[in-house]
Design brief:
2 domains, four-stranded parallel β-sheet, elongated, 24 helices, alpha/beta
């Protein structure tokens, strides 16, 4: 049986009646109630977030594994392991959830002016009991078995006045400052550093990336022999010959001199001789004779570990080499080329001598990284984020299109501060190589002078490896305090970016959701909530859902009223009084930072210096006072005037004490957290601008939670109107 609800004294009474009737077991429908998020849309949003997180998280994982290049995102790899996965997963979840939420938006029609507010009861309950319940709230069942109430129509749309235009402008400018400044900080972190026109400034030497001062492969070989001294071993100007003889030179403590002698014998005979010169090695490295660029990364490892190198081609192992291998068993054989260069048939023929393992990639840059990162028992460099070997990581950097330079640099594999070979194209640092270097970027505890340091030796002139690539390699390998200084991304910075992505997605959703799902809301809440969520991120989204999800709307004397408990009204009132103010405070902070104003200065040599510092007090005033006036005059004041049905001036008088108390309380919470980070947290670096911002955003969230205390008292006293 369907019953219609008759007249009540107010719409709020009708809603309260419906709530108790539902609790009594009757099925109640409020056709004109507005629910910003339905369970169906929430499930769709969560599904979109999961799929987006998995998709971009997988991209981040592939980047972490060195399988794909993340162009422009290489400095993210300075963050702790799996930091890139985390950040991209959060970004993907935010984007996927936003898309799904926007797709699920459906407009909710407004009540037609003069239309009765209806509470529909579908059930076979006791009509007398229903009538008694209705009378308790000022209503009654009519003769047709229906209860009706006439609610006042929603207020008609007003023309936008000057304060509203100003509010729009301030809100847009504030959001623009937050977004532009945030992305500016990230872009500076990603792309800061030397550009492509560095010839006159760089020359041959940077802090971490030094170019061997020689213009030809043979001159590189002579320069290295002079630098390292000691006995020498002259080899032909042939990359494969150098790769074969490098382990022999290392075993004899000789410096290999590339191009020091003309070719005197065939490669096959040379390999057989070198194999006999290293009879005790249990490791054998096979390199492709037809691709010297692929042969040299394994040759660098073989030289350091004194493992013989033998050539192979598509036809197999040369006969003299097979003869030299006779009698050897139990070897660990590494194939240093992909299947197209060293076929599987060659691997099958080598298994009679021991186990065979292929370490190669079709991508030449990834191929070099495999040999730099890999460790197989007691063979291989094993230089990764968990690198434990004594000494500093040192690398040779060359262009795979000029393998002669890489061959000339083979002494760098086993003499002095040694290390593996990395590759890069001429014009810029390869993405995979840069990701690897950012991951390895060292950090210090007290001062930069304590190290450790990464060194790179550039092999070849600017026509082989440009100054731009050298400069980028230098930047990527720079030492930084706890991974936070300079351009590299820290774990704290990644958390800040995750916070930002969630807030950005939530603010865009709220900007569209409120007009569509909450048409009863006024102009100013539609501005305040997106600005608040942009700063508060997940906290703001949760507050929004708590304020509006499942809260039916009624009309009281023409004004929309959401039926909320006191705590939910406090959340809403705090956002209305503080949402725009927090965003304005942080935007002002960005502008202050842009002009070079510091956050704090030392005072009297104590951690509590900021309490008596005139500069700190001045900065607090520069942030809070403009935010107070702008928020009061352009946001909260007009909103409270509309809620109270008074003139603009009366709304400003009502809003001023509310905004003042909210902002002051919030600023105390905000600055407390910033002070804590500044004084007690070791991860905060002065040189990293983004890390100054991250604690401030989190401080804004703490300030929001702090402001709930006075706002609860003001809402209970009826000052704020948190049900509107």
């Amino acid at each position: 049986m369907l019953l219609k609800v008759a007249r009540f004294s107010s719409a709020r009474d009708a809603v309260d009646f419906a709530r108790e009737a539902r609790a009594a077991g009757w099925r109640i429908t409020l056709p004109d109630a507005a629910y910003p998020v339905t369970w169906a849309s929430l499930r769709a949003t969560l599904l979109g977030a999961v799929l987006g997180g998995i998709l971009l998280g997988t991209v981040g994982g592939l980047g972490e594994l060195g399988l794909i290049r993340l162009r422009g995102l290489e400095p993210l790899f300075a963050a702790p392991l799996l930091g890139v996965v985390f950040l991209l997963a959060v970004a993907g979840a935010s984007l996927g959830g936003l898309i799904a939420a926007l797709i699920c938006l459906r407009p909710v029609p407004l009540l037609t002016p003069g239309q009765p507010y209806r509470v529909c009861i579908d059930g076979r309950g006791n009509n007398e009991a229903m009538a008694n319940l209705a009378r308790r709230y000022g209503g009654s069942l009519d003769g047709q078995g229906s209860l009706q109430t006439e609610a006042a129509p929603p207020p008609s749309a007003r023309e936008m006045t000057l304060p509203r235009w100003l509010a729009w402008g301030i809100a847009v400018v504030t959001a623009a400052v937050l977004l532009i400044a945030t992305f500016y900080i990230w872009l500076v972190a990603l792309f800061r550093g030397p550009n492509s026109n560095q010839e006159t400034r760089i020359g041959y030497t940077l802090k971490n990336a030094q170019r061997i001062p020689a213009e030809t492969p043979a001159s590189v070989g002579r320069a290295l022999s002079q630098m390292m001294g000691g006995p020498t071993l002259a080899v032909p100007e042939d990359p494969i010959a150098a790769a074969i003889l490098a382990p022999v030179a290392a075993s004899r403590n000789q410096t290999l001199v590339y191009g020091g002698t003309p070719a005197s014998q065939e490669i096959e005979a040379l390999a057989a001789t070198a194999l006999r010169a290293l009879p005790d090695s249990r490791v054998l490295v096979v390199v492709p004779v037809e691709a010297p660029a692929y042969a040299l990364p394994p040759a660098y490892a073989a030289a350091f570990f004194r493992a013989p190198v033998i050539p192979a081609d598509s036809r197999g192992i040369p006969a003299p080499v097979r003869a030299a291998l006779e009698g050897r068993r139990g070897l660990r054989i590494f194939l240093g080329g992909p299947d197209g260069l060293i076929p599987e048939s060659v691997a099958a023929g080598l298994r009679r001598y021991g186990t065979v393992q292929r370490v190669a990639s079709g991508d030449i840059y990834r191929h070099a990284l495999l040999w730099a990162r890999g460790r197989w028992d007691d063979f291989g460099w094993g230089i990764n984020e968990r690198f434990q070997r004594d000494g500093y990581p040192c690398f040779a950097l060359a262009n795979p299109e000029t393998p002669d330079f890489a061959a000339a640099g083979l002494p760098l594999a086993y003499r002095g501060n040694n290390g593996p070979l990395l590759y890069t194209p001429r014009d810029r640092l390869d993405g995979l190589t840069e990701q690897y270097l950012w991951r390895l970027s060292p950090d210090y505890f007290v001062t930069p002078s304590e190290g450790p340091f990464i060194n790179l030796r550039i092999l070849g002139g600017p026509d082989a490896v440009s100054y731009s690539a050298q400069a980028r390699a230098d930047l990527a390998s720079e030492v930084r305090a706890y991974r936070n200084q300079g351009a590299g991304m820290s774990g704290l910075a990644l958390l800040g970016w995750a916070w930002f992505f969630i807030g950005l997605a939530g603010s865009i959703w709220a900007l569209f959701a409120m007009p569509a799902r909450l048409p009863e809301t006024g102009f100013y809440p539609r501005l305040s909530w997106p600005l608040a969520i942009l700063v508060l991120s997940p906290v703001g989204i949760i507050a929004f859902l708590l304020c509006y999800q499942g809260r039916p709307v009624s009309y009281d004397e023409g004004k929309p009223v959401y039926v909320r408990p006191l705590w939910a009204r406090t959340l809403s009132a705090t956002t209305m009084s503080l949402g725009a103010g927090l965003a304005l405070m942080i935007a002002i902070f960005y502008l202050m930072q842009l002009n070079g104003l510091p956050l704090f200065t030392t005072f009297a040599g104590t951690r509590l210096f900021w309490l008596g510092s005139p500069l700190a007090a001045w900065m607090w005033a520069l942030m809070v006072i403009p935010a107070f006036f702008l928020s009061t005059l352009l946001f909260t004041g007009p909103m409270m005037a509309e809620m109270a049905g008074t003139r603009y001036r009366g709304g400003v008088r009502l809003a001023a004490p509310v905004v003042a108390l909210s902002l002051v309380t919030a600023s105390l919470g905000m600055w407390t957290l910033v002070w804590y980070w500044m004084n007690f947290h070791p991860l905060l670096a002065e040189e990293d601008r983004w890390l100054w911002i991250t604690p401030l955003w989190w401080g804004g969230t703490l300030g929001y939670l702090t402001a709930l205390i006075p706002n609860y008292l003001m809402e209970r006293a009826g000052w704020m109107g948190g049900g509107s």
